[in-house]
Amino acid sequence: MKVSKTISHFILNEVRKNVSDIQSVSRRISSGRINESDSPTSIALANSVSLRVQTLDFISQHITKNVSVLQKYEELLNQVSNYVQNLKMISDRASLSSDNQEFQELEKAYKENLSALEQLVRRTTIFSKVLGRGGFSNSVISVEVISGDVEFRKTDFNLSGLNFIRFGIKQYQSFQIQFDRVGDNFQATLFLDGSPVFTENKEVVGKPSDMPFIVDFEELGVSIRVQGTSDFSVKVEGRADPQLIVFGDGENDEERFFIPSLEPAQLGIPSDFEEGADMVSQNLEVVLKNLSDIRGFIGQKIAKLSQRNDLGDIIKSKLKVLQGNYEDADMTSDAVILNLKQVILNSDISSLRRAVSFMNLALDMLRR
Prior knowledge:
CATH architecture of the domain at 55-131 and 246-312: Up-down Bundle
Largest sheet: 5 strands, antiparallel
Order of helices and strands: HHHEEEEHEEEEEEEEHHH
Strand order of the largest sheet: 3-10-5-6-7
Helix content: 40-55%
Shape: flat
Radius of gyration: 33 Å
Number of helices: 7
Strand content: 15-25%
């Protein structure tokens, strides 16, 4: 009987000690600090989030680059809108003018402003992409060397400036570009469905033979990086892919969309007053409305990208909480922090509370 009491007393003390330890762990977890030894669930959750965080930096860089592209495009969009407003002011004045000389001067001013707009769109680039042409990233699918003792990689070709609308390339359509070199003369030919569509020639002189250099075909909107002096013929297969791919969480992890072209001809801006200055003004009114719609579209995309970048910050903060670095979690609202802790730790706290209840039940049994 004495031995039984001694054992019961020992068990009772051990149970009380375990209950006290569990309650302490529960309080610590409730305050937002988790140690790896607390529970297998915590370790698994921390490891799972840690693996996800490893990809967040890449996604964040991708989103940041896309936001930079869209913000630069938005700046260009605003400049284009200003030009169109100026063109409309000129056409409005011309439609009211009864003086032939004044009309001709206004038409000359209109053409000069239109030419300046075309140059602006043509020269505004970011990450080697002619933004104003819009649309596609034009992925390089394959490279085939037809002749010549040369080697090329996909990264030696930049097809991002290809004016797909002008040459009739459709969304997701494949195309081929053949680059030929004979001495200092270079040629790029665009093929659609096996038929040549456009050819551009370029002469490049004075380039060092031991250093790579870029041959830029501005009219076609493509370029090739060349090294050495050997003649060659190489064919590149490309595809009109979306300009941007956005990574996110949950549904719609991948989103594809196409940036509208801002080239004056594609916007429908008249090149002169041949149809009448009043008709030009009406057309420009429609163009301004379309530019406003594009601005709204781009604004939505920037906002969505920013939200997804914020999501990455939240996941990183979750990891800090799970690792016990609650004080370092970059959260701006106490309410958000509390909610975040409750969501993350709910399963662990529930398990520990059940364990505490079980231990209290065991104590009652031992007392009886």
